[in-house]
Amino acid sequence: MSNEVEVKTTDFYEVIRDRHSVRTYDPTYKLSGEEIRSLLEEAILAPSSSNLQPWRFLVIQDQELKEKLLPIANNQQQVVQASAVIAVLADLEGFKQGQLIYGRSVEQGFMPEEVLSGYVARITGYYSEQPERYRDTALIDAGLISMQLMLAAKARGLDTVPMGGYDSEKFVEAFNIPSNLKPVILLPVGKAVGEGRKSVRLTVDEVTTWETF
Question: What's the superkingdom here (predicted)?
Answer without folding.
Answer: Bacteria
